[in-house]
Amino acid sequence: MTAFDPIWNELYSQGHRNRYPWDAVVSFVFRNAPRDIERNQVEILEVACGTAGNLWFAAREGFSVSGIDGSTTAIEYAKQRFVEEGLTADLRVADFTSLPFEDAVFHLAIDRAGITCCAYAQAQQAVAEVHRTLKAGGKFFFNVYSVSHTSAAGKSGLNTEITQGNLTGVGAICFYTQAMIMEMFPVANWHMHTCEETLWNNQVGADNSQHAEWRVVVEKK
């Protein structure tokens, strides 16, 4: 079983690209990267990295980066871009429910709306894998869509037939309540630093939909 939705291979094949980093990821990296070691010794993992725009930023800043995605098209594009720009990264086609890395490797881990694309049980497996591969004290940025999103239609959990809002056409999405977030990160394994629901309205033409996502920062105990 794989947590990867094949629709993303189709979207990447049609030219979908994220060439530049998300602002929330940039802030997370600069706020949480260890300062007592050289940047090239700080190991950063991104799960569901897509075309690796976030890792491109981190590599340019001197960090050591690794990323996995289920899309061969996305990883091939990212690898080519890194080579062309003289950057180094460990980029692999893999499933985030079974990460191809040793235990306790990474200082930071990033999920920018990747794990939200699978069912909750698979998301729990993915988070357990992130926990396994993080060093003690390592930080994890977990970014999933909220049940407050228009595309959720008021229902939490996995929605395989999104018919409204700006997530129409991107495949299945799991929409999260705060209770689901808290269950995902038991206090025995994680220390939660922030759990913020971010909302904004799209007011372009006739579109009055609401975008809503969770931005969570946790630390491995």
Describe the structure concisely:
The chain has helices at residues 7-13, 23-32, 53-60, 72-84, 120-133, 178-184, and strands at residues 43-47, 64-69, 90-93, 106-112, 134-145, 157-159, 173-175, 190-201, 210-220. It is α/β, with parallel strands linked by helices and 221 residues long.
Count of discrete alpha- or pi-helical segments spanning 4 or more residues: 6
* Run of helices and strands: HHEHEHEEHEEEHEE
Please give the alpha-carbon distance between the first and last residues: 29 Å
Overall geometry = globular
Report the major sheet.
7 strands, mixed
The count of strands amounts to 9
- Please state roughly what percent of the residues sit in beta strands, choosing from under 5%, 5-15%, 15-25%, 25-35%, 35-45% or over 45%: 25-35%
Query: Unreliable runs, pLDDT <50, ≥5 residues?
Result: none
- What is the radius of gyration computed over CA atoms, rounded to a whole number of angstroms? 17 Å
Q: What is the arithmetic mean of pLDDT?
A: 93
**Percentage of residues assigned to helices:** 25-40%
The class by helix and strand makeup works out as: alpha/beta
Side by side, the strands of the main sheet go 3-2-1-4-5-9-8
What can you tell me about this protein's structure?
It is a single chain. Helix content is 27%, strand content 29%. It contains six helices and nine strands. The chain has helices at 7-13, 23-32, 53-60, 72-84, 120-133, 178-184, and strands at residues 43-47, 64-69, 90-93, 106-112, 134-145, 157-159, 173-175, 190-201, 210-220. A seven-stranded mixed sheet has the order 3-2-1-4-5-9-8. It has a two-stranded antiparallel sheet with strand order 6-7. Strand 2, helix 4 and strand 3 (90-93) form a beta-alpha-beta unit. The longest helix has 14 residues, at 120-133. The mean pLDDT is 93.
